[in-house]
TrEMBL record:
It comes from Solanum pinnatisectum (tansyleaf nightshade). Pfam families: FA_desaturase_2. Signal peptide: none annotated. Its cofactor is Fe cation; Fe(2+). Its main location: plastid. This is Acyl-[acyl-carrier-protein] desaturase. It is found in: Plastid, Chloroplast. The lineage of its organism: Eukaryota, Viridiplantae, Streptophyta, Embryophyta, Tracheophyta. Residues 16-35 are annotated as: Disordered. GO terms for molecular function: metal ion binding; stearoyl-[ACP] desaturase activity. Belongs to the fatty acid desaturase type 2 family. Fe cation 1 binds at residues 134, 172, 175, 258.
Amino acid sequence: MKQTISFSQFNIPSIVGASPPPTTTIHRRTTTSSRRLSPVLAVASPTTSPSLHQVTYSMPPEKLEIFKSLEPWVFENILPLRKPVEKCWQPIKFLPNPSQGPEQFAEEVRALRQRASGLSDEYFVMLVGNMLTEDALPTYQTLFNTLDGVCDETGCSRCPWGIWSRAWSAEENQHGDLLRTYLYLSGRVDMLMVDKTLQYLIGAGMDIGLENNPYLGFVYTSFQERATCLSHGNMARLATEGGDPMLAHICGTIAADEKRHEHAYTRIIEKLLEVDPNATMLAIADMMKKKIIMPMHLMYDGQDPNIFESFSTIIERQGVYTSRHYAEILEFFIIRWKLEKLEGLIGEARCAQDYVCGLPPRVRKLESRAKKIEPHQVKFSWIFNKQVTT
């Protein structure tokens, strides 16, 4: 079954919107039909499906053998990027420890709250957003287990793809636990609304266009892990400026984990470009056309149907993750994966190469456009009924 991709319309990536290409080929295991896709909703509504038609199983069955053949390589090159549990940091190392006794614990909580008092409401909106992204881990692991050829078929598979996926999930789970506990102890946010938002988010799932296709999945995770590394790193900088060095240490530690995860997924794409350059190049272009969107793009708090758009505006204006960062990440991978130097590509894969390598200047235009966004008042249910100026 031949994978197809249309290059008739160049969609510029955005960290705010989330919509698939205008026309997509729907691949099934035995039949193929072309349908018009409706825009992906940016809201997780209790009564609304993210999209009317979802593309599934776009990887031809014969490609499964490629991922099977890569299992020894994964053992040698990807699994060593896991950290043994005994060498991993644990959230309690950064937080007030109740085992030290009630008086010491209370004193450490008071110190944490004093440090947190110097941070802005906008900062806590972004910190909740980062926590929700990390804490929606059940969705991400479930999504990975839909990818053909690399899924954990039994829940405890000894296949190296499954071993890596579980280890990655366990480390990401620590990030959410740490940020959630910090937020709880800070007293700065309405944890009831945060919890409701998380439940809505996990219940909504993700609609990021992976099509059960590991080529697309590993392109997405390469990009997303680098993006989250930058985001947490910028949050660390802002925490230092706001007078909370411990929170800066927390965010910086999480960023370091994300950097290591990025190395793993980047290596996988490098290997796929070596063994199957045409399909991999098509996958990179496909994900760029769909736009690499945040995992939490279906975020909903039960009240605001535009909460993700408002959150995206804040992180753009605060410089935590912007269209400039998006362009820089794209440029980084073009260089890292040596996309401009790939030779021997044929047909649509060569068109895909031209498209991706010519994309950064188009994305750069979003930076100047974003700077023209006028400030406006946004009310977040996570913050105790305070007005947040973006």
